UniProtKB/TrEMBL annotation:
<feature type="domain" description="Alcohol dehydrogenase iron-type/glycerol dehydrogenase GldA">
    <location>
        <begin position="14"/>
        <end position="181"/>
    </location>
</feature>
<protein>
    <submittedName>
        <fullName>Iron-containing alcohol dehydrogenase</fullName>
        <ecNumber>1.1.1.1</ecNumber>
    </submittedName>
</protein>
<dbReference type="GO" id="GO:0004022">
    <property type="term" value="F:alcohol dehydrogenase (NAD+) activity"/>
</dbReference>
<comment type="similarity">
    <text>Belongs to the iron-containing alcohol dehydrogenase family.</text>
</comment>
<dbReference type="InterPro" id="IPR056798">
    <property type="entry name" value="ADH_Fe_C"/>
</dbReference>
<dbReference type="InterPro" id="IPR018211">
    <property type="entry name" value="ADH_Fe_CS"/>
</dbReference>
<keyword id="KW-0520">NAD</keyword>
<feature type="domain" description="Fe-containing alcohol dehydrogenase-like C-terminal">
    <location>
        <begin position="192"/>
        <end position="398"/>
    </location>
</feature>
<keyword id="KW-0560">Oxidoreductase</keyword>
<dbReference type="InterPro" id="IPR039697">
    <property type="entry name" value="Alcohol_dehydrogenase_Fe"/>
</dbReference>
<dbReference type="Pfam" id="PF00465">
    <property type="entry name" value="Fe-ADH"/>
</dbReference>
<dbReference type="InterPro" id="IPR001670">
    <property type="entry name" value="ADH_Fe/GldA"/>
</dbReference>
<dbReference type="Pfam" id="PF25137">
    <property type="entry name" value="ADH_Fe_C"/>
</dbReference>
Amino acid sequence: MPELPDLPGTLRLPARVHFGYGARAQLPEIVAGHGTRVLAVVDPFLETTPHFAAVLGALGTAGLDVRTYSEITPELPVGTLTAGAAVARDHRAEVVLAIGGGSALDAAKLIALLAVHDGPLARFYGENLVPGPVVPVVAVPTTAGTGSEVTPVAVVSDPDRELKVGISSPFLVPAAAVVDPELTLGAPASVTAFSGIDALVHAAESYTARPLPLGWSAPLPVFTGRNALTEPIALQAAERLGPWLPAVVRSPGDRDARREVALGALLAGIAFGSTGTHLCHAIQYPIGALTKTPHGLGTGLLLPYVLDVLRAEVAERIARLGAAVEGIPERDASAERTVARVAGINRAIGVPATLAEIGIGRDQLPQIADLALKSARLLAIAPVQPTRELLLDILGRAHAGALDDRSAA
């Protein structure tokens, strides 16, 4: 039987979450519920697609006044967000409609923030520094991975910082999330793979997070660690992502696979949006900055090595996670088998196996460890003491491709 610790539970979610093929038909009603003046924040390549044209047509038919902002880049430089907020204020936007990948959704959250609260954006870097409500955001993801449509965090690039910076606040949770797997059908295989494996990392890190002491009489942190309400959700996410992510990368037009991966990514977002993430994410941020590789590529590459190092501390939880990933009885699962299965998923979907393959030299590992140590909020949720030596151990294994022999089978 699983242990039954006395865990607290916290969920912060959009007031409305809709999932399924055709769910985007709800958008006129949902958006109109927040006002008639709409700023649509959209990935630039989506502006000319039939899906976006249909959404704009439906909103127009509903009598909504929509202006589009598409100056979105993957790194989200601060200047584009400040410019987007100026457009929102000029349009007197009452609601922001976000359509796109994780960058577009994060951009929409931060534009909605700056449209109400005076910048600079750096005022809000960190946790719980947003002073009040933002313009309501209706989030419509077109990739299955980030979970940004249901989370309280957005990540931005600041030229004055070595790493990307997070802004975390319950006020950044979108007002509504509409997840329509139809919108993911055109995603390139690499985007599907790297966003999908990042969703599996979200589920894994949520499920293996350290429980944090919470004082109910004081303001809560945004991320609360291991969580009684999110544990089953994280496992449900892993159940869908484990078998279906390789299937959808192999067969991009498989509608069943698209549905299951989109649902898994949504569930993983619900889970980590309350618990937080830990070691894979803390280490990926400097790796991504050095190599300019996709976020999900880095977190996915690191996942088997992080789980391998964590086996001594949370073996039962990793085994349970693996049972969900493989769809096998818990009695047949083990932490070693989980690590091997995750490494196998990475191979199947094209995630590089080592840091050396993405251009990281061994001489860079100490610098990466030192930069990762700056992600104190993430490291606080790790189930082990996140020392420099631990980070160097993970990095050394990931550079050499050195999983425990039993995990490499």
